[in-house]
Specification:
The protein is 42% helix and 13% strand. It is an alpha/beta fold. The strands form 2 sheets. A 6-stranded parallel sheet has the order 2-3-4-5-6-7. Helix 2 packs antiparallel against helix 10, helix 3 crosses helix 10 and helix 4 packs parallel to helix 5. The structure holds S-adenosyl-L-homocysteine and iron/sulfur cluster.
Amino acid sequence: MNFDFQSYGITRDQFAELLSTTDSLLLQTLYAEARAARNRVYGNKVFMRGLVEISSYCKNNCLYCGLRRDNGLAVRYRLEPLQILQCCDKGYALGFRTFVLQGGEDPWFTDERLIPIVQELHRRHPDCAITLSLGERSYESYKALREAGAERYLLRHETANENHYAQLHPVEMSFSHRMQCLSHLKALGYQVGCGFMVGSPGQTISTLYEDIQFVHHFQPAMVGIGPFIPASGTPLEQYLYDASVPESIANTVDVTLRLLAIIRLLHPRVLLPATTALATLHPQGREMGLQSGANVVMPNLSPIESRSKYSIYNNKASLGNEGAEAAEATRRQLGKIGFDASPDRGDMV
Ligand code: SAH
Ligand code: SF4
């Protein structure tokens, strides 16, 4: 197979073969090519982002998510503006130069409340990149936040197939609006991250092929992909993949690694996190992600007492290596496997 997907694209057949093959030599080549592609652009650097989970309230009802509005089991909290700034100060001292403020779509965080937080964060740490991941907002809101100092925005497209989108979301949420938000963010000059879960109900090799074609065409600065993990109290809590659908996704960790490698080869300059969901499902998930072409890790900077409440899915890893307190240990550990945990902001080159 010719692995230069950036120049030649990847056909549906090649894609299906890479996702389903049991040929270990082919897989080893895929991962080696992905690592080489990453190394040509970023060397052995791994960028660390400090994640602050600012609110577990959400007005939306995405079927898969533990924070969905109707989940009576969800424990809700919201960080005070001062707490958010303190988390970032702590992260700065630990060496982080990118902060990611993520949360449910919490109506409390109006522009009037959010803008001063972003401005103050930017004033305190002008050498840091501020990333937001707060869901769908208006063009005006994205614009005002950009002007306040936010430079990056993570909004996973979740799936590039409209019917699949409708299977995962309630009727009041629309694929076209999600896509419109992504194009607004791009037009406003944000470094935009899209992404999707692996193994979500209804996902097939065909829908995944649409996802990677979307990535190829959208040219995001970042792609967040991680396994779908059922969340208690959601309509999908009992979900098991449907073995009668030949194309359905069973081994989500394995498929996530293959997709990381394919995306790296398709878009070599992209920033690709080894996600917490991957680390949650496999004790070596983070390292395996990096060995498959990822080059970003996002340790958790949220106050320890709120971490278990930000329960997007069950048993989410947030301590140990997923905790930002362990930044030094993480650096050492990454060093042992040949990576250099970079103090840089880590912009896409
Ligand atoms: N509210 C914002 C950001 C928080 S959710 C938003 O929706 O964009 C961040 C991501 O978590 C989502 O984009 C989704 O892809 C992922 N996620 C939600 N539920 C999940 C689950 N059960 N398993 C794995 N990932 C999940
Ligand atoms: Fe809310 Fe995001 Fe979860 Fe959807 S995925 S319910 S928008 S937190």
